[in-house]
Amino acid sequence: MSNLLPIVLLIFVNFSQVYGHGGEDHEKSKPKKEIQIDDDGFEIVSTAPSQEVIDKINKNYQTNVKKIFSNKCLSCHGVNDSPPWYYHIPGPKQLMDYDMREAKKHMDMSNDFPFGGHGSPVDDLNALSKTIQKDDMPPMKYRIMHWDSKLTDREIKVINKWIKESQKILIQK
Prior knowledge:
Layout: H1 4-19, E1 36-37, E2 43-44, H2 51-72, H3 74-77, H4 92-106, H5 121-134, H6 140-145, H7 153-172
Antiparallel strand pairs: 1-2
């Protein structure tokens, strides 16, 4: 039985490299910035939402969504203060460190909303919506070891409501 563990870990490593996050490469998919001109002929340097808008969305996030993400997402996409016992074993530790680095490249939730990784707050919300719809987070290799890591229907409803409300606020900015 003890000889089986290295084989299982090797299968996970190979599987995770191929199916970890759908093969998305955010470095290649960043949109090219188009120059926008206002009515007076001046270049619009920033169309980012105001801090007031961001604060409103972030407050709603902290009140309704952050606890869900803390239980389901932040061990990879945030600060992992309590890694599992097997984190300290050579091999699994390196795999987990790699997965956490990759997860934060895609979406870093360490500092509340807006998240890092996708660019704009709208991009963050669109990426979350797409991920929830595709049901590809957390990756299967994580779900195997953490059976309760999949979002429940109630949690999906809460997160989707926050995403839709936030998108409306950003459009109105």
